[in-house]
Amino acid sequence: MTTKIMRTFDTSLPIDAALPQLTAALARNDAAVLVAPPGVGKTTRVPLVLLDELWAKDRKILVLEPRRLAARAAAARMASTLREQVGDTVGLRVRFDSKVTKRTRIEIVTEGVFTRLVLDDPSLEGIAAVLFDEFHERSLDADLGLALARDAQVFVLFNCAAAPDRSEQCAVCENFSGMADEINHQVILFRC
Ligand SMILES: Nc1ncnc2c1ncn2[C@@H]1O[C@H](COP(=O)(O)OP(=O)(O)O)[C@@H](O)[C@H]1O
Ligand SMILES: [Mg+2]
């Protein structure tokens, strides 16, 4: 039997309180929306935790960032959390710069890079989940990426600093249930 290994971290972050509910939501459904203010750990902690979920086994997690600078910063931070270099477990793929190796399980990519990636391989072979970071910002690339990711059989998680309005929720998930769990006054999880 495969046993899930719980990763531990040197510092605790407010998002930690929401992680059991988040992983439970993704074990039952194929999408979720995570809403929490800046600084709680949506970007740099959640991907590291999802990596250990059994459904992610041997496959990759893609994290989509709207901007190159944010992508670089997130990759550097996550790699240093693991005491590794970018290109080990955590890789980076932005225009004109790719730091990805055979060891890489989390790829931080810009939304434009993701669009090309998914157009090349619409089934997203080898990808377990796609995280849309800063999804509240909305962009053409993110919306296109979302439509294409929903066609592939992958888990989808949206990180937002502000709750999406009703019409945006529908764009995110066809069968959005409107179910929201408020966790530790800061984190709201919508299960889709
Ligand atoms: N490059 C960094 N250097 C030092 N601390 C950082 C860095 N990136 C993130 N952190 C710390 O990790 C916390 C979580 O950051 P982050 O995952 O970016 O939060 P969120 O995505 O929810 O805004 C921050 O509050 C900060 O304390
Ligand atoms: Mg963030």
Total tally of structural domains: 1
Classify the fold: give the CATH topology. Rossmann fold
Please, how many helices? 6
Separation, N- and C-terminal Cα atoms: 29 Å
**Poorly predicted parts:** none
Overview in brief:
Helices cover 30% and strands 24% of the residues. It is α/β, with parallel strands linked by helices. Helix 4 (111-120) packs parallel to helix 5.
Description:
With 192 residues, the chain is α/β, with parallel strands linked by helices. The chain has a single domain (14-171), classed as 3-Layer(aba) Sandwich (Rossmann fold), CATH 3.40.50.300. Helix content is 30%, strand content 24%. The protein is built from 6 helices and 9 strands. It has helices at 19-28, 46-50, 68-81, 111-120, 140-151, 166-172; strands at 31-35, 60-65, 90-94, 97-99, 106-110, 127-132, 155-160, 179-183, 187-191. It has a 9-stranded mixed sheet with strand order 4-3-5-2-6-7-1-9-8, with helices on both faces. Helix 5 (140-151) links the parallel strand 6 and strand 7. The chain is globular and about 40 Å long. The mean pLDDT is 88. The protein binds adenosine-5'-diphosphate (ADP) and magnesium ion. Magnesium ion binds at residues 42-43, 133. Magnesium ion is lined by residues 42-43, 133.
